Amino acid sequence: MGGDNRRVMVTGALGQIGSELVPHLQLLYGTQNVLATDIKEPSGSYSSSYERLDVLNVAELRGLVKGYDIDVVYHLAAILSATGEMRPDLAWDVNINGFRNVLEMARESLIDKIFHPSSIAAFGTETPRLNTPQDTVLTPRTIYGVTKVTGELLGKYFFEKFGVDVRGIRLPGVISNVAPPGGGTTDYAVEIFYEAIERGSYECFLRPDTTLPMIYMPDCLKAFQDLMDAPSETLKHRTSYNLSSLSFNPAELAAEIMKHKPEFTITYKPDFRQEIADSWPMSIDDSCARAEWGWSPDYDLGAMVDDMCFVLAARHESGKI
Length: 321
Fold this sequence. Notes:
15% strand, six-stranded parallel β-sheet, 14 strands
């Protein structure tokens, strides 16, 4: 496997990250070499080869991996934090057993490389919240976080025991101008832009001072690719890289949006997601990612808000949101 000839499958391709990762991979490897899968059916036309897949169905998974001669899997299928608290049984099943099924495909030498994202949800209240270290105590307070810690360890085990090349990043909140929010605690940072443009106001489910780490989607995709392209021998933390880009709170984000829409107003009504957010880091030490595979973000808060407002305002004017 190598270069532009690799065959790539994305699970959870209709989610927030998958919606932008698929076209990104198409540009890199060619549309014909990217297979998008999800448990749902896409609405309207879809720009890539698409197959419905339940990642808990081993026979379906193996059939697609063999049928499409897949080399690399970006395994994004997961139940996110807020949704997971309402359905912990489903979150464990999808997030752990689904991942293990993909790992087994690699152990059988059917695929060569796996990307499996972890999350800042892997941290907990005992973790230092400022400049959170790479190697630190992991005591998550959500089932989503528990599955992410388990996934990090499971990936590491399959690498050390069976030589499976699995890589992962502890993602902060991801901000996208393409896909709608998908049930995460950091999703206010996406919702706020849609509400600002459509209604001019937003009621936030977190306190105004709730600082959390975030990343803009172009930087997120860049990080995925930089890690996946890195020589295997340089990677020491393979499945659990801290990743930092932006850290801000709702009040700071609202102030940036007001530079574009001075009439915008925000109110606050914290709900159960506030407790989740309070167990997560405020800022991240990503020095290992920078040292081991050259990570460096392109967007700061101002540049991210500029781009989000420009893209969504144009889409709103054209009637597409």
